[in-house]
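Researcher: Next entry in the queue.
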Amino acid sequence: MVNAEIVLGARLTGGEHPDARYEADRSTPGEIVEQVISTLANDNGLLRCRLIVLYRRSIATVEAS
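Model: Structure for this entry, 65 residues:
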């Protein structure tokens, strides 16, 4: 496996649309998407991305590419 990075396009409940880069060591893009989904599914979901932190309660939708 290789290091992989995906771009998350998030629509926040406040109406903002930030793009966030998320990467993981020795993971495939599919595995990263699963990590993102499981992290944000937690009640206290907090996802640390490059230059931004996404909080579960502030996210309306997420799109990965």
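Model: The longest strand covers residues 4-12.
Researcher: Noted, moving on.
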